[in-house]
Amino acid sequence: MFEEHGLLNLLLNLHDFEARARTVMRKSIFDMVDGGFNDEITYKRTRPAFDSVGLIPRYLKDVSQVDTSTELLGQRISLPVLPAPSAPQIGAHPDGDLATCRAAGAVGTIEIVSHGSDFTIEEVTAAAGGPVWCNIFMLKDRDYMRQYVRRAEAAGCTALCWTIDTPSLDMLKEQMLRNPDPQLETLGRWANLVRTEPDGSQIKLDFMQQIDPAATWHDLDWLRSITALPIVVKGVLRADDAQLCVRHGASGIVVSNHGARLVDGMITAIEALPEVVDAVGDRCTVLMDGGIRRGLDVFKALALGATAVLIGRPIWYGLAVGGQAGVEQVFRILQRELAYAMTMAGVAKVEDCNRELVVRVPTLYEAGGFAAQWTRDRGL
Question: Rounded to whole angstroms, what are the CA distances from 102 to 93, 127, 323, 326, 328?
């Protein structure tokens, strides 16, 4: 791998990592990670959605010391970028989530370990050099769910991250089975899908069969009732759903369309972000997941109201190219690019990123140009 030869520094951006990962990953696994759902309409719209957010920089601001750190649910992190929960990461590197959590700790951010991790929650928290959130899906077996939450608490996790946008995985499973590579069917260890019986015996659960399509907001109430950990709800794209998250006790929201991997034709996360932020105000922390490839993308999400962002596919690219060192490099590239974007926008602190620094570019052209829109917005 690249880190063995000291070549990681030759990869200058996340696109370089993606290109290199394509050459080293098994094709079927790369295709699984890299693609979107069905015709990939939403997936292909994600990049243009980011590009449609234009930067309006401020100059003659003191940006001699730019700070990319921020506070997230009471924890200070060095950059507002977290690894999105995804599995099975051993498809990219044998150390999988262990490498990712170590990288997150090394750069000073929070790890979010997937419910489908190849390693137990205890193994991940023991390996991590920083805080860990435990990702969960709501499974039909509530006794198991209660056990898993208790395990997360005992392991020292600082929050739960509930992925709500998967009432069914049938079509995703069907797409994977169409792939001629039989290795995909057995990829992943699902180390946490074990229920312990009163006699100490253990029963392995089938994740696909256990996904609960009957889950409702009452299950958020139930989850809130069995743990004191902050709950972050991942997969929100609507203002009314965001308000329901707050009403039912969520501490955070992740605006996400699951990487455009489950339904085609839905809106992108960056498009949904402003409405969700406006719906919850300061009552709930908002994060965004989906499509981040540049530090400028991070800046745009922050300016539109996100406290931090999640990255999914780039983690796999970093793992494939360089294991822990590769993931660290992915984070550091984004941090460096974010710092540059902040400098050029006239912002010294993450908390000062705001909507006055960005604009929807197509709206400007439709309205007759930048100067006209700027004048109208300010009542001049």
Answer: 13, 6, 10, 11, 9
Q: Name the one residue in this structure whose structure tokens are 């039912």.
A: 248
Residue in the block written with tokens 């501490």: 251
At residue 188, the pLDDT reads 80
Percent of the chain whose predicted confidence (pLDDT) is above 70: 89
- Bond before 88 cis per omega within 30 degrees: yes
Query: What is the Cα–Cα distance from 353 to 178, expressed in whole angstroms?
Result: 44
- Reply yes or no on whether 93 is catalytic: no
* 217 and 238 Cβ atoms separated by less than 8 Å: no
The two three-digit tokens of residue 221, written as one number: 């109430």
Which of 93, 115, 248, 258 does the annotation list as catalytic?
258
Give the chain's mean pLDDT: 92
Six-digit token pair at 18? 């993606």
pTM beyond 0.70: the answer is: yes
User: What is the distance between the alpha carbons of residues 121 and 193, in angstroms, rounded to a whole number?
Assistant: 11
pLDDT, tens digit (0-9, with 9 covering 90-100), for 13-22: 999 999 999 9
Residue type, 27: K
DSSP state of 356: G
**Phi, psi of 118, rounded to the nearest 5 degrees:** -80, -10
CA pair distance 361, 379, nearest whole angstrom: 20
What ranges do the domains of the chain cover?
2-377
CATH code, 2-377:
3.20.20.70
Q: Which of 109, 108, 117, 107 is nearest to 85 (CA)?
A: 117
Backbone angles phi, psi at 229, to 5 degrees: -70, 145
Tell me the C-alpha distance between 162 and 139, whole Å: 11
Closest by alpha carbon to 39, among 171, 182, 163? 171
H-helix segments, 7-135:
14-24, 27-34, 41-51, 96-107, 121-127
Q: Is 294 helix (H, G, I), strand (E, B) or coil?
A: coil
Residue 36 forms beta bridges with which residues? Answer: none
The span from the CA of 228 to the CA of 238, in Å, is 26
DSSP characters over 47-105: HHHHHTEEE----S---SS-B--EEETTEEESSSEEEPP-S-GGGT-TTHHHHHHHHHH
The Cα–Cα gap between 193 and 31 comes to 26
CA distance 298 to 307: 10
Residue 202: burial class (beta carbons within 10 Å; 0-12, 13-18, 19+): exposed
